[in-house]
Design goal:
With about 130 residues, this protein is mostly helical. It folds into 2 domains: about 15-75, Winged helix-like DNA-binding domain superfamily/Winged helix DNA-binding domain (Arc Repressor Mutant, subunit A), CATH 1.10.10.10; about 85-120. Helix content is about 55%, strand content about 5%. The chain has helices at about 15-25, 40-45, 50-65, 85-105, 110-120; strands at about 65-70, 75. Strands 1-2 form a two-stranded antiparallel sheet. Helix 1 packs across helix 3, helix 1 packs across helix 4 and helix 2 crosses helix 3. The radius of gyration is 18 Å and the shape is elongated.
Length: about 130
């Protein structure tokens, strides 16, 4: 199991960081549908945070239908059709970060488009990426 990342110095509440991190892990496929999440107390101990914080994150993720709970068994990642939307949102966030870095570096919009087009043409092993909308 991959554990979520927490920044204790951030001004963002820990439960929101947990939620974002689990959304990101799901979008990246690092947590598979129906995979069990760590128990509340175990995750709280691993991260050094209050179990109530983890419980609040889990409760809100359940309300958002990202996870589901089975009483006496634990919490599991949902198998939702809109997980593709989670993937797209994660990609969008990465694009925003890359665009900001490019802007700071003084890279023009045209150059950035060319760079992205080049990345789309090949993946890490040189194989073509097929479009799947």
């Amino acid at each position: 199991m991959v554990y979520p990342e927490i920044n204790y110095q951030s001004g963002v509440p820990l439960y929101q960081q947990l939620k974002r991190s689990f959304h990101r892990l799901a979008a990246l496929g690092l947590i598979k549908p129906h995979e069990q999440l760590p128990p509340v107390r175990q995750l709280a101990a691993e991260l050094g945070i209050n179990p109530n914080t983890v419980q609040k994150a889990y409760r809100e993720m359940e309300q958002e239908r990202l996870i589901y709970a089975i009483p006496g068994k634990g919490n599991f990642l949902s198998d939702r059709d809109d997980n593709k939307e989670l993937e797209k949102e994660e990609i969008r966030r990465n694009f925003l970060t890359a665009a900001h870095i490019a802007w700071l570096a003084g890279i023009s919009s045209e150059s950035l488009h060319l760079l992205l087009d080049g990345c789309i043409e090949e993946n890490h092993d040189g194989a073509r990426i097929k479009r799947r909308d």
